[in-house]
Amino acid sequence: MKKTKVPSIVAVMILTVITISSWIVFSVVRVFQTEPTLSIPPEILNPLNPNYDKTAVDKIEKRIYFDKDQVFETAAPATGSGELTI
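and the corresponding structure tokens:
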């Protein structure tokens, strides 16, 4: 009996699938094994000043304040109607 020979394109495709799958596996392993480098700006690493800043509090108190009567509410459209009611 004569054995059938595997066509060369099938052999190339099988080797390609093996290569791609091992590439993916090794990439995933490398991602999980390496630790990311953290680059934190020095402004964030500086300690906060725990002292009370009266000028900042005064600026906040002098800001514009709206009463509930001055704030307008918007109504959401009813579901399914497709029209906006105000």
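(Above: one complete record from the training split.) The chain has a mean pLDDT of 82.
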